[in-house]
UniProtKB/TrEMBL annotation:
It comes from the Eukaryota. GO terms for molecular function: FMN binding; oxidoreductase activity. This is NADH:flavin oxidoreductase/NADH oxidase N-terminal domain-containing protein. It comes from Paramecium primaurelia. InterPro entries: OxRdtase_FMN_N, Oye-like. Residues 2-330 form the NADH:flavin oxidoreductase/NADH oxidase N-terminal domain.
Protein backbone atom coordinates (compact mmCIF):
# COMPACT_ATOMS: atom_id res chain seq x y z
CA UNK A 1 0.00 0.00 0.00
CA UNK A 2 1.31 3.45 -0.86
CA UNK A 3 0.17 6.97 -1.83
CA UNK A 4 -1.16 5.64 -5.14
CA UNK A 5 -3.34 2.85 -3.83
CA UNK A 6 -7.01 3.75 -4.45
CA UNK A 7 -9.09 3.98 -1.28
CA UNK A 8 -12.39 5.08 0.18
CA UNK A 9 -12.35 8.21 2.31
CA UNK A 10 -15.36 7.52 4.53
CA UNK A 11 -17.68 6.60 1.67
CA UNK A 12 -15.92 8.75 -0.96
CA UNK A 13 -14.01 6.63 -3.48
CA UNK A 14 -10.69 8.21 -4.42
CA UNK A 15 -8.28 7.30 -7.21
CA UNK A 16 -5.26 7.75 -4.93
CA UNK A 17 -4.37 8.78 -1.39
CA UNK A 18 -2.98 12.19 -2.27
CA UNK A 19 -5.21 15.11 -1.34
CA UNK A 20 -4.82 18.84 -1.67
CA UNK A 21 -5.25 20.52 1.72
CA UNK A 22 -7.55 23.53 2.13
CA UNK A 23 -5.78 26.74 1.18
CA UNK A 24 -7.30 30.21 1.09
CA UNK A 25 -5.35 31.75 -1.76
CA UNK A 26 -7.34 35.02 -1.73
CA UNK A 27 -7.78 35.02 -5.51
CA UNK A 28 -11.55 35.59 -5.59
CA UNK A 29 -11.71 39.10 -7.01
CA UNK A 30 -15.43 39.90 -6.74
CA UNK A 31 -17.39 41.25 -3.78
CA UNK A 32 -20.07 38.60 -4.26
CA UNK A 33 -17.49 35.93 -3.31
CA UNK A 34 -18.39 33.85 -6.37
CA UNK A 35 -15.61 31.52 -7.55
CA UNK A 36 -14.07 32.74 -10.80
CA UNK A 37 -12.81 31.17 -14.02
CA UNK A 38 -9.23 31.57 -12.80
CA UNK A 39 -10.10 29.66 -9.64
CA UNK A 40 -11.68 26.93 -11.74
CA UNK A 41 -8.47 26.68 -13.75
CA UNK A 42 -6.49 26.48 -10.49
CA UNK A 43 -8.51 23.56 -9.17
CA UNK A 44 -8.56 21.78 -12.55
CA UNK A 45 -4.78 21.97 -12.81
CA UNK A 46 -4.62 19.89 -9.63
CA UNK A 47 -7.26 17.33 -10.67
CA UNK A 48 -4.92 14.34 -10.56
CA UNK A 49 -5.22 14.44 -6.77
CA UNK A 50 -7.44 11.74 -5.31
CA UNK A 51 -9.36 14.47 -3.51
CA UNK A 52 -9.26 18.23 -3.13
CA UNK A 53 -10.38 20.09 -0.03
CA UNK A 54 -11.52 23.56 -1.05
CA UNK A 55 -10.15 26.76 0.38
CA UNK A 56 -11.92 27.58 3.65
CA UNK A 57 -15.41 28.82 2.72
CA UNK A 58 -16.73 31.40 5.20
CA UNK A 59 -20.23 30.65 6.46
CA UNK A 60 -21.42 34.21 6.29
CA UNK A 61 -20.24 37.80 6.07
CA UNK A 62 -19.50 37.59 9.82
CA UNK A 63 -16.93 34.85 9.45
CA UNK A 64 -14.45 36.26 6.95
CA UNK A 65 -10.80 36.50 7.86
CA UNK A 66 -9.54 38.22 4.75
CA UNK A 67 -10.42 39.69 1.36
CA UNK A 68 -10.36 37.40 -1.64
CA UNK A 69 -12.33 34.54 -0.07
CA UNK A 70 -15.00 32.74 -2.05
CA UNK A 71 -18.00 31.25 -0.28
CA UNK A 72 -21.06 29.07 -0.57
CA UNK A 73 -23.78 30.76 1.45
CA UNK A 74 -25.99 31.75 -1.51
CA UNK A 75 -27.26 30.16 -4.68
CA UNK A 76 -25.08 32.18 -7.09
CA UNK A 77 -21.97 31.04 -5.29
CA UNK A 78 -23.26 27.46 -5.23
CA UNK A 79 -23.98 27.51 -8.99
CA UNK A 80 -20.42 28.62 -9.73
CA UNK A 81 -18.98 25.95 -7.42
CA UNK A 82 -21.19 23.35 -9.14
CA UNK A 83 -19.30 23.97 -12.39
CA UNK A 84 -15.95 23.35 -10.72
CA UNK A 85 -17.28 20.23 -9.02
CA UNK A 86 -18.68 18.84 -12.28
CA UNK A 87 -15.44 19.36 -14.17
CA UNK A 88 -13.32 17.79 -11.45
CA UNK A 89 -15.66 14.80 -11.45
CA UNK A 90 -15.07 14.27 -15.18
CA UNK A 91 -11.40 13.73 -14.25
CA UNK A 92 -12.21 11.33 -11.42
CA UNK A 93 -11.14 13.82 -8.73
CA UNK A 94 -13.27 14.16 -5.61
CA UNK A 95 -13.91 17.52 -3.98
CA UNK A 96 -14.78 18.28 -0.38
CA UNK A 97 -16.03 21.69 0.72
CA UNK A 98 -14.33 23.11 3.80
CA UNK A 99 -16.65 25.21 5.98
CA UNK A 100 -14.80 27.82 7.93
CA UNK A 101 -15.56 30.42 10.58
CA UNK A 102 -12.53 32.61 11.32
CA UNK A 103 -13.65 33.43 14.88
CA UNK A 104 -11.35 36.05 16.42
CA UNK A 105 -8.69 35.78 13.67
CA UNK A 106 -9.81 38.77 11.64
CA UNK A 107 -9.45 42.48 11.11
CA UNK A 108 -12.35 42.71 8.73
CA UNK A 109 -14.99 42.53 11.44
CA UNK A 110 -15.37 44.74 14.49
CA UNK A 111 -15.92 42.66 17.62
CA UNK A 112 -15.68 39.31 15.85
CA UNK A 113 -17.27 36.26 17.42
CA UNK A 114 -15.33 34.08 19.86
CA UNK A 115 -16.14 31.77 22.78
CA UNK A 116 -14.76 34.39 25.20
CA UNK A 117 -13.81 38.06 24.86
CA UNK A 118 -10.08 37.28 24.81
CA UNK A 119 -7.85 39.00 22.29
CA UNK A 120 -5.09 36.96 20.66
CA UNK A 121 -1.93 37.85 22.58
CA UNK A 122 0.50 40.23 20.86
CA UNK A 123 -1.61 40.32 17.73
CA UNK A 124 -3.04 42.87 15.33
CA UNK A 125 -6.45 41.16 15.41
CA UNK A 126 -9.58 42.84 16.68
CA UNK A 127 -10.96 42.45 20.19
CA UNK A 128 -13.62 39.70 19.97
CA UNK A 129 -16.94 39.57 21.76
CA UNK A 130 -18.14 36.58 23.74
CA UNK A 131 -20.79 34.75 21.75
CA UNK A 132 -24.27 34.66 23.24
CA UNK A 133 -26.27 31.43 23.08
CA UNK A 134 -28.21 33.04 20.22
CA UNK A 135 -24.94 33.70 18.38
CA UNK A 136 -23.98 30.04 18.81
CA UNK A 137 -27.34 28.83 17.55
CA UNK A 138 -27.07 31.21 14.61
CA UNK A 139 -23.63 29.86 13.63
CA UNK A 140 -24.86 26.26 13.86
CA UNK A 141 -27.76 27.23 11.59
CA UNK A 142 -25.34 28.78 9.11
CA UNK A 143 -23.44 25.48 8.90
CA UNK A 144 -26.72 23.73 8.12
CA UNK A 145 -27.76 26.26 5.46
CA UNK A 146 -24.34 26.09 3.75
CA UNK A 147 -24.41 22.29 3.81
CA UNK A 148 -27.64 22.30 1.79
CA UNK A 149 -25.97 24.45 -0.87
CA UNK A 150 -22.90 22.20 -0.79
CA UNK A 151 -25.10 19.22 -1.47
CA UNK A 152 -26.92 21.11 -4.24
CA UNK A 153 -23.55 21.94 -5.87
CA UNK A 154 -22.67 18.23 -5.98
CA UNK A 155 -19.70 18.18 -3.62
CA UNK A 156 -18.57 14.77 -2.37
CA UNK A 157 -18.43 15.78 1.26
CA UNK A 158 -17.84 18.48 3.86
CA UNK A 159 -14.90 19.16 6.13
CA UNK A 160 -15.46 21.27 9.22
CA UNK A 161 -12.48 23.48 9.97
CA UNK A 162 -11.78 22.93 13.69
CA UNK A 163 -8.04 23.56 13.63
CA UNK A 164 -5.42 26.28 13.66
CA UNK A 165 -6.95 28.76 16.09
CA UNK A 166 -10.13 29.59 14.17
CA UNK A 167 -13.58 29.63 15.80
CA UNK A 168 -14.10 25.94 16.53
CA UNK A 169 -10.50 25.35 17.64
CA UNK A 170 -10.84 28.26 20.03
CA UNK A 171 -13.96 26.65 21.52
CA UNK A 172 -12.01 23.40 22.02
CA UNK A 173 -8.97 24.84 23.76
CA UNK A 174 -9.13 26.25 27.25
CA UNK A 175 -6.75 29.18 26.70
CA UNK A 176 -9.38 30.75 24.45
CA UNK A 177 -12.55 29.37 26.01
CA UNK A 178 -13.33 30.62 29.53
CA UNK A 179 -17.11 30.24 29.32
CA UNK A 180 -19.02 28.91 32.27
CA UNK A 181 -22.13 27.76 30.44
CA UNK A 182 -22.77 24.55 28.45
CA UNK A 183 -20.15 25.52 25.85
CA UNK A 184 -17.16 26.02 28.14
CA UNK A 185 -15.39 24.48 31.13
CA UNK A 186 -15.38 20.70 30.85
CA UNK A 187 -14.00 18.88 27.82
CA UNK A 188 -17.55 17.74 27.06
CA UNK A 189 -18.77 21.33 27.02
CA UNK A 190 -15.90 22.62 24.89
CA UNK A 191 -16.58 19.94 22.24
CA UNK A 192 -20.33 20.60 22.26
CA UNK A 193 -20.56 23.16 19.46
CA UNK A 194 -18.69 20.92 16.99
CA UNK A 195 -20.87 17.94 17.82
CA UNK A 196 -24.04 20.00 17.50
CA UNK A 197 -22.87 21.20 14.08
CA UNK A 198 -22.23 17.61 13.01
CA UNK A 199 -25.65 16.54 14.22
CA UNK A 200 -27.15 19.22 11.96
CA UNK A 201 -24.99 18.35 8.94
CA UNK A 202 -26.05 14.72 9.27
CA UNK A 203 -29.58 15.74 8.38
CA UNK A 204 -28.17 16.65 4.93
CA UNK A 205 -25.09 14.45 4.35
CA UNK A 206 -24.53 10.86 5.42
CA UNK A 207 -21.91 10.86 8.20
CA UNK A 208 -19.33 8.94 6.13
CA UNK A 209 -19.10 12.00 3.88
CA UNK A 210 -18.29 14.32 6.78
CA UNK A 211 -14.91 15.11 8.25
CA UNK A 212 -13.26 17.40 10.79
CA UNK A 213 -9.86 19.07 10.59
CA UNK A 214 -8.06 19.20 13.94
CA UNK A 215 -4.68 20.42 15.17
CA UNK A 216 -4.06 18.94 18.63
CA UNK A 217 -0.53 20.30 19.01
CA UNK A 218 -0.79 23.61 17.19
CA UNK A 219 -1.42 26.70 19.30
CA UNK A 220 -1.70 28.92 16.28
CA UNK A 221 -3.46 32.20 17.12
CA UNK A 222 -3.09 31.52 20.81
CA UNK A 223 -5.48 28.56 21.09
CA UNK A 224 -3.85 26.13 23.48
CA UNK A 225 -4.99 23.35 25.75
CA UNK A 226 -2.86 22.06 28.63
CA UNK A 227 -4.45 18.61 28.44
CA UNK A 228 -4.75 17.79 24.74
CA UNK A 229 -4.85 14.02 25.25
CA UNK A 230 -8.02 14.14 27.32
CA UNK A 231 -9.61 16.68 24.96
CA UNK A 232 -8.98 14.79 21.72
CA UNK A 233 -9.72 11.40 23.22
CA UNK A 234 -13.21 12.62 24.04
CA UNK A 235 -13.71 14.44 20.72
CA UNK A 236 -12.66 11.44 18.62
CA UNK A 237 -14.79 9.09 20.73
CA UNK A 238 -17.79 11.31 20.01
CA UNK A 239 -16.97 11.47 16.28
CA UNK A 240 -16.94 7.64 16.34
CA UNK A 241 -20.36 7.60 17.98
CA UNK A 242 -21.57 9.74 15.07
CA UNK A 243 -19.84 7.48 12.52
CA UNK A 244 -17.94 10.35 10.91
CA UNK A 245 -15.98 9.34 7.80
CA UNK A 246 -12.67 11.11 8.30
CA UNK A 247 -10.49 13.46 10.27
CA UNK A 248 -7.63 15.52 8.88
CA UNK A 249 -4.88 16.00 11.45
CA UNK A 250 -2.59 18.95 11.09
CA UNK A 251 0.82 18.23 12.56
CA UNK A 252 3.11 21.17 13.04
CA UNK A 253 6.79 21.51 12.46
CA UNK A 254 6.87 25.24 13.04
CA UNK A 255 8.35 25.57 16.54
CA UNK A 256 6.56 28.90 16.95
CA UNK A 257 3.26 27.04 16.68
CA UNK A 258 4.00 24.59 19.46
CA UNK A 259 6.30 26.69 21.65
CA UNK A 260 4.89 30.16 21.33
CA UNK A 261 2.66 32.33 23.58
CA UNK A 262 4.54 31.29 26.70
CA UNK A 263 3.01 27.80 26.91
CA UNK A 264 5.01 24.61 27.45
CA UNK A 265 5.85 22.61 24.32
CA UNK A 266 2.86 20.65 23.08
CA UNK A 267 5.22 18.18 21.39
CA UNK A 268 6.08 17.01 24.89
CA UNK A 269 2.39 16.13 25.40
CA UNK A 270 1.91 14.40 22.06
CA UNK A 271 5.14 13.52 20.29
CA UNK A 272 3.53 11.85 17.27
CA UNK A 273 0.05 13.17 16.74
CA UNK A 274 -0.87 10.62 14.03
CA UNK A 275 0.18 7.65 16.14
CA UNK A 276 -1.70 9.10 19.11
CA UNK A 277 -4.97 9.57 17.18
CA UNK A 278 -4.97 6.30 15.21
CA UNK A 279 -6.34 3.97 17.91
CA UNK A 280 -8.84 6.59 19.04
CA UNK A 281 -10.64 7.05 15.70
CA UNK A 282 -12.28 4.35 13.63
CA UNK A 283 -12.67 6.32 10.37
CA UNK A 284 -10.01 7.48 7.90
CA UNK A 285 -7.13 9.68 8.96
CA UNK A 286 -5.68 12.25 6.58
CA UNK A 287 -2.18 13.30 7.63
CA UNK A 288 -1.17 16.90 7.06
CA UNK A 289 1.46 19.43 8.04
CA UNK A 290 4.73 19.65 6.17
CA UNK A 291 4.51 15.97 5.33
CA UNK A 292 6.91 15.12 2.50
CA UNK A 293 6.00 12.44 -0.06
CA UNK A 294 8.52 10.11 1.61
CA UNK A 295 7.14 10.65 5.12
CA UNK A 296 3.62 10.36 3.71
CA UNK A 297 4.36 6.96 2.21
CA UNK A 298 5.79 5.82 5.52
CA UNK A 299 2.76 7.08 7.49
CA UNK A 300 0.51 5.07 5.17
CA UNK A 301 2.68 1.95 5.33
CA UNK A 302 2.65 2.13 9.15
CA UNK A 303 -1.17 2.60 9.05
CA UNK A 304 -0.95 5.80 11.09
CA UNK A 305 -2.69 7.57 8.17
CA UNK A 306 -4.91 6.45 5.29
CA UNK A 307 -4.16 9.44 3.06
CA UNK A 308 -1.99 12.56 3.02
CA UNK A 309 -3.05 16.09 2.20
CA UNK A 310 -0.38 18.38 0.83
CA UNK A 311 -0.83 22.13 1.02
CA UNK A 312 2.08 24.28 -0.04
CA UNK A 313 3.67 21.64 -2.28
CA UNK A 314 0.55 21.75 -4.44
CA UNK A 315 0.83 25.52 -4.92
CA UNK A 316 4.14 25.32 -6.79
CA UNK A 317 3.59 21.80 -8.20
CA UNK A 318 0.12 21.53 -9.75
CA UNK A 319 1.31 18.20 -11.21
CA UNK A 320 2.43 16.99 -7.79
CA UNK A 321 0.87 13.54 -8.20
CA UNK A 322 2.77 12.79 -11.43
CA UNK A 323 5.97 14.24 -10.03
CA UNK A 324 5.82 12.01 -6.97
CA UNK A 325 4.98 9.00 -9.17
CA UNK A 326 7.92 9.67 -11.49
CA UNK A 327 10.32 10.69 -8.75
CA UNK A 328 10.75 14.12 -10.38
CA UNK A 329 12.29 17.02 -8.48
CA UNK A 330 9.65 19.24 -6.85
CA UNK A 331 9.54 23.01 -7.38
CA UNK A 332 10.26 25.13 -4.30
CA UNK A 333 7.28 26.80 -2.65
CA UNK A 334 7.05 30.49 -3.58
CA UNK A 335 5.93 32.17 -0.34
CA UNK A 336 5.56 35.53 -2.08
CA UNK A 337 2.62 34.31 -4.20
CA UNK A 338 0.78 32.18 -1.63
CA UNK A 339 -1.54 35.03 -0.72
CA UNK A 340 -0.97 37.51 -3.54
CA UNK A 341 -3.32 38.46 -6.35
CA UNK A 342 -3.50 37.43 -9.99
CA UNK A 343 -2.33 34.30 -11.79
CA UNK A 344 1.37 34.40 -10.78
CA UNK A 345 2.16 31.40 -8.59
CA UNK A 346 -1.46 30.28 -8.85
CA UNK A 347 -2.11 28.91 -12.33
CA UNK A 348 0.56 27.65 -14.69
C1 LIG B 1 -1.74 30.02 1.75
C2 LIG B 1 -2.35 29.07 2.74
C3 LIG B 1 -3.70 29.15 3.01
C4 LIG B 1 -4.28 28.25 3.91
N1 LIG B 1 -5.64 28.29 4.10
C5 LIG B 1 -6.23 27.32 4.85
C6 LIG B 1 -7.64 27.21 4.93
O1 LIG B 1 -8.40 27.97 4.30
N2 LIG B 1 -8.16 26.24 5.70
C7 LIG B 1 -7.36 25.35 6.40
O2 LIG B 1 -7.87 24.47 7.08
N3 LIG B 1 -6.04 25.43 6.34
C8 LIG B 1 -5.45 26.36 5.56
N4 LIG B 1 -4.10 26.38 5.43
C9 LIG B 1 -3.30 25.33 6.11
C10 LIG B 1 -3.11 24.12 5.17
O3 LIG B 1 -4.33 23.48 4.87
C11 LIG B 1 -2.19 23.08 5.81
O4 LIG B 1 -2.79 22.63 7.01
C12 LIG B 1 -0.81 23.66 6.13
O5 LIG B 1 -0.32 24.44 5.04
C13 LIG B 1 0.18 22.53 6.42
O6 LIG B 1 0.29 21.66 5.29
P1 LIG B 1 1.54 21.78 4.28
O7 LIG B 1 2.77 21.75 5.14
O8 LIG B 1 1.44 20.58 3.38
O9 LIG B 1 1.43 23.08 3.54
C14 LIG B 1 -3.48 27.28 4.56
C15 LIG B 1 -2.12 27.23 4.29
C16 LIG B 1 -1.55 28.09 3.39
C17 LIG B 1 -0.07 27.96 3.10
Amino acid sequence: MNLFTPFTLGSIQCQNRIGMAAMSRQRCDNKEMIPTQMMKQYYMQRCTAGFIITEGLPLSLDSIAQDGSSAIFNIKQADAWAQIVQELHTKGCKIIAQLWHCGRVTNKINNPLAPSAIKIKNSKYNQPKEMSIDDIQQVIKQYLECSKLIQYAGFDGIEIQASSGYLLDSFLKSSANKRNDNYGGSVQNRCRIILEIIDQLQTVFEPQKLGVKISPITRQYDSYDPNPKELYKYLLEQLNVRNIGFIEIRDDDYPENWLDFGYPSSKSDIANVFEFCRPLFKGCIIGNGKVTPEIGDELIKKHFCDAISFGRLFTSNPDLVDKIKNGDKLNEVDNSTLLSQGPKGYIY
